């Protein structure tokens, strides 16, 4: 069964509260056939999906131009904005088109910047730790300083985003595994402490052995830093984030590797491992987001349409280009090689920030539009009913 | 912290969330609301009583995720609060529907009946495609879920399960991180502008301890909002549903009463006369933390992938 067929069937189910209700209750379901200004139109078929009309009960039909937005009525979805939709428009009922869940109050650019910087910090600390252990001094130095700078900025953005920033230490009063933000706060606090201490020791040159230990600790926490934010987003009722929970950690990990790796490849002579990380990260990010958009069904349109879609397409193009440029920079010696490295760092970091922004924006769109809640939940209920009748 | 169950579940039926939260076995029974929308008259006494008792600041429809006009009115219905919010703990929804004229059985008033044009005899359908306007009104409130996502995800411990089995924000703890807001599958809790903290229905925690009903239920003139022990309310709801079905109101249905639903059953549940989404409620809400173990597993796999990639990048790299 294709997605389109499933949605058509879902549209049919939407018209009825269950077989029993349908038989006895004309009140809600077989709506009027006339169209008045007062009326709450029960179905206004999506213009580009004429086939869906055939599955809707006859009485539910209204002319396309009925278009009212009354309470409890269905509305006509706006047509695609000149973009190829992966999922067709669907019909659903809502309360005056109002959001069902509350959109997050998280601010821009605070939260996208916090995600991006956390990713850069995590990957560069791991690169710095291994660079230290393998005797790559410039990779160690750049990695440590990048990591500390990004981690501290990330914390500043996170605290600034709080509704009551003076109480940021309340995050430290509990250790709560059911809250990704609690776990994330502990990861971020631990990581930032080690990362900051390592950078301080790097700059002062004091206690190099302690610096190595502290750097290794930060490097071990690095992979957690770059992925916990995906759980932070997924563990919400925001459809575009929750539905993507399987791939989002890989998207964020890839995005972080591309950004952090490409910053560290500016170290020149020592850059080979960082370059590999950047290229692998770019590939991982593009692959993960592609798989995600194919798997998550209705929510995919949040990632492919509107401003989020535009930003994410641009980010993908920049990621692919940046990955290629980063790989090429390994084969070119001298000044031109350095310039290629700088170009790849700019592209991959811009792309990483854009990806975080795009994912953030997709979630906001899906939270504001009740379609992202009602259509998949109705489909889920229909599938469950079909299962129940099929097995009994 | 006596008798706390050793297992903690993130979803599914949970007979006693209060004990699960660590209260001793002699804790008060779990209380809740049963809001029977079939008798709601849309008077908004609950909204006003709630504002008054909880001393909530004024807010407008613009604060609830939708735009209002210059007067802060929605301009679409008699609903001018628009939805639940940080300063609106009860919200009365107004749904206006044109539906096929229904065969309503007139109430016998003991008066001589004259046959009006368009009137029908009891039990007969009106001819043709006659329509009539139907109004649905419903007072919405925090659901005080058995598995409350807001409580699960709160990183400060500001959100707690009370001794009455309800879900409460401790304002002196909340640091306004805002995580509870998108976590709620019903869109109940929100951040108060100018304050920064998260606010929602407390079920009048300050009245419960004194044996008083919440302000909304006390003010409701039709007993559309019923307050009591959750077990009793569920029985009353089943009886009311049977009555309505017997009175040829087959569209009546309960919402949020089932302990097997996605949130383990609501502490505040409803009798509705149309599909939940018509009232602005999600048709099949699921507590988001149900998938949390799987989320951490995927994040762990991604973290290991990244760690492995970084480690491999150093193998055989030229110096």
TrEMBL record, chain A:
It comes from the Bacteria. Pfam families: NrfD. This is Polysulfide reductase NrfD. Residues 51-67 have a biased composition (Basic and acidic residues). Belongs to the NrfD family. It is a multi-pass membrane protein. The chain crosses the membrane at residues 145-163, 183-201, 213-233, 248-266. Gene3D superfamilies: Formate dehydrogenase/DMSO reductase domain. It is found in: Cell membrane. InterPro entries: NrfD-like. Keywords: Cell membrane, Membrane, Transmembrane, Transmembrane helix. GO terms for cellular component: plasma membrane. Residues 23-37 have a biased composition (Low complexity). Its main location: membrane. Residues 1-84 are annotated as: Disordered. The lineage of its organism: Bacteria, Bacillati, Actinomycetota, Actinomycetes, Pseudonocardiales.
UniProtKB/TrEMBL annotation, chain B:
It comes from Pseudonocardia sediminis. Residues 1-11 have a biased composition (Polar residues). [4Fe-4S] cluster 3 binds at residues 142, 145, 150, 184. The chain crosses the membrane at residues 295-317. GO terms for biological process: cellular respiration; formate oxidation. Pfam families: Fer4_11. [4Fe-4S] cluster 1 binds at residues 40, 43, 46, 220. Keywords: 4Fe-4S, Iron, Iron-sulfur, Membrane, Metal-binding, Repeat, Transmembrane, Transmembrane helix. [4Fe-4S] cluster 2 binds at residues 50, 201, 204, 216. Its cofactor is [4Fe-4S] cluster. The keyword Acyltransferase does not apply. GO terms for cellular component: cell envelope. The lineage of its organism: Bacteria, Bacillati, Actinomycetota, Actinomycetes, Pseudonocardiales. The keyword Acyltransferase does not apply. InterPro entries: 4Fe4S_Fe-S-bd (IPR017896), 4Fe4S_Fe_S_CS (IPR017900), FDH_Electron_Transfer_Unit (IPR051555), Formate_DH_Fe-S_su (IPR014603). [4Fe-4S] cluster 4 binds at residues 154, 174, 177, 180. Residues 31-61, 133-164, 165-194 form the 4Fe-4S ferredoxin-type domain. PROSITE patterns: 4FE4S_FER_1, 4FE4S_FER_2. It is found in: Cell envelope. It comes from the Bacteria. Binds 4 [4Fe-4S] clusters per subunit. Residues 1-22 are annotated as: Disordered. This is Formate dehydrogenase beta subunit. One of its GO terms (molecular function) is metal ion binding. Coiled coil: none annotated.
